[in-house]
Amino acid sequence: MKKILLICGLFISLTTAGLAQANHPGTTDPTEKAKKLQKELKLTDKQTVKVASIYEESAQKFEKIKAKDQGNTNKMLVSIGPLRTATIKKIKAVLTPTQAVKYDKLVKSTKNTGGNGWSDGWSATTEN
Asked: Which domain holds residue 107?
């Protein structure tokens, strides 16, 4: 009986751990992130390359902020605000008006769920 309970407990633990990871698939790789956005917004290959470049630039600036603020979350949140705004503006400049509307919805939806993946180049994105 103890063995059965042990096996059940192990199975539940492994299942829970696997599902927890599967619920947050994402990437901080700018190219992969741009490809996911390409699927969401039906971007052209040229647009995708530009968005990947924007995400890469944003990620580099984020790393500088993180180093400067030495991981202090409160300071980083203040410093990241203008970077996020600039990143959104640059991405929207690459998009068509229809894509920009969809992008705004993506940014708003991830912001409402506690994420911020589509509006920056460093956070993990979520899949719908």
From this structure: 28-119
